[in-house]
């Protein structure tokens, strides 16, 4: 699909309708079903909605908003990483950012720091510190080539995994439940305040990345071609990965570890609309939001009245998808 204004408008319209449909499904389906008419009455501010006001307004809507924002952030970052590293198997956790965020959150929980904001702050700082560490190690020889970034991220992630296992082995049973739910990705504690915090981060980072979509297209075609066309390869790659990593850190710090969204959503979209990042980046935002909303709705309803962490659902879908991509690694790519 060519990146014309008309095609971009049609793409956004279709994906916005898909997102609206997933929101309607998420608001009406659950342990207690809420008829669409009651959802409409609640949205119109009518006072006779009864329990629907609590179920929809206080429980499901904040959860869906955080799911949509986190899914958009992870999907957008995945599209950027896949383009910068020229690898369809790349995803937001390729830099080890997830390991750093998880270590920060696990440390906060094990220290008994109460409150979701404390855990989120530690997780974000862990993600930020990890991203800076990976960049410093990968660039110590004067460059930031894709192979160095990937290998450094894998090794840093392995180190943080060992740290997490050590903390889990020494913590109490009471704290262990909270740690495991965060590691699996849990949106049950989502609030409107979290959505309000993540929304401007997504907007600013998304705008910064989309404005460099043309440079990302050139990088995806190869470093030599990009440099010949005037792109400062090292600086552009560093900027794109910094912004994408910060976006992942912000999302993970609020939603917990939710894997494979950044792998599946942009790749499925790329199979439909092509590789032009002027379409792929905004499309990834909307499609990733819909994808995680659907996954969270499934997590709430599959074993109703209990619920699963949404990370369990995305992992169950993502692991086979990853293996399929790995088996077909020889297919045409960019």
TrEMBL record:
InterPro entries reported in the protein's UniProt record: ABC_BtuC-like, ABC_transptr_permease_BtuC
Membrane topology: Multi-pass membrane protein
Keywords: Cell membrane, Membrane, Transmembrane, Transmembrane helix, Transport
Pfam family, any one: FecCD
Keyword Membrane on entry: yes
Gene Ontology terms, MF aspect: transmembrane transporter activity
Predominant localisation class: membrane
Cellular localization per UniProt: Cell membrane
GO CC field: plasma membrane
Ranges that cross the membrane: 64-85, 92-111, 117-137, 149-169, 189-211, 238-265, 307-327
UniProt keyword Manganese, yes or no: no
Family: Belongs to the binding-protein-dependent transport system permease family. FecCD subfamily.
Protein's name in the database: Transport system permease protein
């Amino acid at each position: 699909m060519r990146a014309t204004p008309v095609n971009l408008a049609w793409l956004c319209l279709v994906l916005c309708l898909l997102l609206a449909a997933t929101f309607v499904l998420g608001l009406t389906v659950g342990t207690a079903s809420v008829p669409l008419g009651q959802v409409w009455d609640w949205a119109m501010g009518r006072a006779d909605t009864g329990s629907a006001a609590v179920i929809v307004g206080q429980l499901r809507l904040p959860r869906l908003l955080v799911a949509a924002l986190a899914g958009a952030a992870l999907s957008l970052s995945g599209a950027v990483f896949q383009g910068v590293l020229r690898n369809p198997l790349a995803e937001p956790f390729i830099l080890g950012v997830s390991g750093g965020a998880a270590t920060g959150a696990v440390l906060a929980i094990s220290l008994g720091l109460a409150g979701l904001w404390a855990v989120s702050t530690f997780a974000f700082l862990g993600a930020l510190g990890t991203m800076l560490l990976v960049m410093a190690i990968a660039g110590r020889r004067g460059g930031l080539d894709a192979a160095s970034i990937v290998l450094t991220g894998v090794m840093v992630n392995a180190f943080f995994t060992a740290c997490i296992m050590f903390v889990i082995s020494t913590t109490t049973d009471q704290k262990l439940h909270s740690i495991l739910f965060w590691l699996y990705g849990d949106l049950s504690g989502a609030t409107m305040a979290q959505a309000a915090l993540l929304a401007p981060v997504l907007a600013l980072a998304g705008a910064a990345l989309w404005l460099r979509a043309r440079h990302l297209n050139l990088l995806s075609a190869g470093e030599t071609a990009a440099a010949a066309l005037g792109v400062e390869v090292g600086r552009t790659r560093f900027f794109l990965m910094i912004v994408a990593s910060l976006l992942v850190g912000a999302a993970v710090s609020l939603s917990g570890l939710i894997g494979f969204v950044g792998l599946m959503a942009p790749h499925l979209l790329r199979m439909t609309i092509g590789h032009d990042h002027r379409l792929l980046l905004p499309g990834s935002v909307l499609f990733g939001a819909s994808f995680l909303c659907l996954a969270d709705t499934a997590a709430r309803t599959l074993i109703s009245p209990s619920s699963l962490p949404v990370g369990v659902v995305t992992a169950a879908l993502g692991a086979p998808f990853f293996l399929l991509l790995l088996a077909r690694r020889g297919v045409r790519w960019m």
